[in-house]
Amino acid sequence: MSPLALDPLVPSGRARAHRLAGGCVAGLAAAALASWGRFLAEASLRLDPHSPAFLVACAVVGAGLAAAGVCGWRLAQVADGCRWRALLAWAVLTHLAAAPALPLTSSDLLSSLARGELQRRGLDAYAAAPAGVAGGPVAALAPARWAGRPSIYGPIANGAAALAVAAGARLGAPVAGPVAVLKTLLLLAALGTVLLLFLHLRRDGPAAKPRFVLVAFSPLLAWEISGQAHNDGLVVLALAAFVLAAARRREVLAAAALAAGALAKVVTAPLLALHVAVTWRRAPRRAALLVVIGAGMALFALAPHAAAPVSAGALAAHLAGPTRHAHSFCDLLCLALERGGAPVAAARVCWAFWIGSTALAAAVFLAALARARTLPDAIRGFTFAALALFLTTPWFQPWYVTWLIPLLAVEEDAALVRLIAAYGIATVVLWAAPLDPVTTVLVNGWVAWRLWRRAARPAAQCQNPSEIPAFE
């Protein structure tokens, strides 16, 4: 019998765990309601970041996400008081509470649907832009920043958007239908991620419960994927499938999962390269098979778009002229230069940061590629390369951090697990709350400082990769 079963304080501990889980649900539900309040006040899905209704809604969302983050963090410390099935049920409820949210902290859902409308009309999303489609309420929703640019996402992400628009048209609801379908698809991706990580971590017993809570109850994951319907949800699902397959030594399935993720958004390609490198050092023929599988999947998915021009121009336009929102140190510096009457200097600084940030992330990745010998080596190399990019790039968005959340299920450095989990909470809260222009810069500075301190001392390795030592 478990020692916990003999502890008379377990019932009260279990009640506290349930209260904290309920707090996560309530925080996300309040955020979702605030997004509807903004919509009802303005009667439009288009976002005006300067309107009073938008600012009030963002303040409520920030408070709700902060409450969910605090409750989730404390729940991880008392997770032993909750059964596995109860934790899974509460995690599902947390995502369901966020799911009804309308676009508020991002318009990416509307941009995705505009690309889906292009494909429904028989156009190639890599060759055409939403602005070129006359009429149609869905295409008209695309924010001005993306209306004139072809897609920079993979065929799986574009295909999901096309499916949502086609299904919405069949429902006879030209706007509400596609919004509901695409949000449902990405909610299922988030729930699939939670379920896959549950299946992986449950095998390790009660010690894995805190880790599961940090991943499954993350307000970053729930709000940005289930709530705001970013196509990064497809990437996160692919990463969760990779974690489950790789942990069970199913190298082929793991590689296929990462290849599928890269065909949604290219960000999983570096981890696929690291996975192949680790496999190559143990079984070169198996590694060659992984390369063939990844290349075959890419050729099959991209073949219908062979005649379309490469969307590097759209990506270059995105890099050259980011909207100044001060969610990176470079962006804050450029904002100050532009307001000081030096736009040329601001543009040069921006490009210098792009080059430096890319070079730094590439250097960290190449170092990991040379040293990786095991699955944890590959995952940590990818994590550090991603963090190097997040903390230095001119264009940072909090949902990028979702790429790291599934990998926490197998990360062996307990301090790094806590840091990334806290980073996800802080960055989504400060993104939502109308506290610009320096809040995200402060969070990034804090993370960089903690990483520097971590580099100065040995990593706090877990004897069991699913066990997290006492919280700081």
Which key features would you list for this structure?
472 residues, mainly alpha, 19 helices, 0% strand, globular
Describe the structure.
The chain is an all-alpha fold and 472 residues long. The protein has 19 helices and no strands. It has helices at residues 10-42, 52-77, 84-98, 108-120, 144-147, 155-170, 176-202, 209-216, 219-227, 232-247, 251-262, 269-282, 284-302, 312-320, 329-339, 343-371, 375-392, 414-432, 439-455. The longest helix has 33 residues, at 10-42. The protein starts with 9 loop residues before the first helix and ends in a 17-residue tail after the last helix.
Short description:
With 472 residues, the chain is mostly helical.
Helicity range: 55-70%
Major β-sheet profile: none
Number of strands: 0
Oligomer: single chain
Structural class: mainly alpha
Radius of gyration: 22 Å
The proportion of residues in beta strands is under 5%
Poorly predicted tracts of residues: 1-11
Query: How many H/I helices?
Result: 19
Overall geometry: globular
Order of helices and strands: HHHHHHHHHHHHHHHHHHH
Q: What's the rounded overall pLDDT mean?
A: 87
N/C terminus separation: 30 Å
